[in-house]
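Posting this for the archive.
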Amino acid sequence: MIMTEETTPDTALPATLTRHVDAETCADPSSVMTLLAESDAAGGFTSYRSTFSRGAVGAPAHFHTKATELFFVISGSLQVLVGDEVTVLNAGDFLAVPPRTPHAFAAAPGAEADVLFVFTPGMGRFDYLRLLGRVMRGEADPKEIAESAERFDNHYVDSPAWRAALERSA
C-alpha cells in the first residue's frame, strides 16, 4: 500500500482478499457470477467475475449515475454497447464505462466469455446480483429489478442499437 500524508497506517483501509474457495457464486441458466469483494467505504468498489455460456444474454441497456463500470475480458469474447456503438471485446481487452453512459453486454455471437467486472464506488451490488440470479431462475418477479433501480444505481434504457445487434446475432 502506498502511504500519503492523508493516509497513515492507523487510518488506512485494510487489504481485501477473497480466496476462490470462499467466493459466493450465483448461477442462472446462461452464466455464473462469482462474487469477489465489495466495499462501501469511501472510494470503495464491487468486484465480481462472470462466466457466460454461448448465447448468454448478459445485461440489457442501462446506465449508472454514480459508478464507473470496468470490464476486463479474461477469455472469450463479449459483445458490448457503449453509448450507441456496439463492439466486441476479446481476451485481454479492457473497457471503462463512466457514469451516465448507456451500456449493455452479452456473450459475443458464437462465443463464451469470462469477464472481470469492477464498479467504483461500490454500493452493496451483491444483493442486486443475487436478485438477478433469482429472476433469471424464475424465483423472483422481474418487477423487483425495476423497483431496485435507485438502490443499486442501475437504470434501464431503450437502445435501438443494442436491439439491432441482438437481432443480428439471433
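DSSP finds four helices and ten strands in the chain. The chain has one domain: 23-169.
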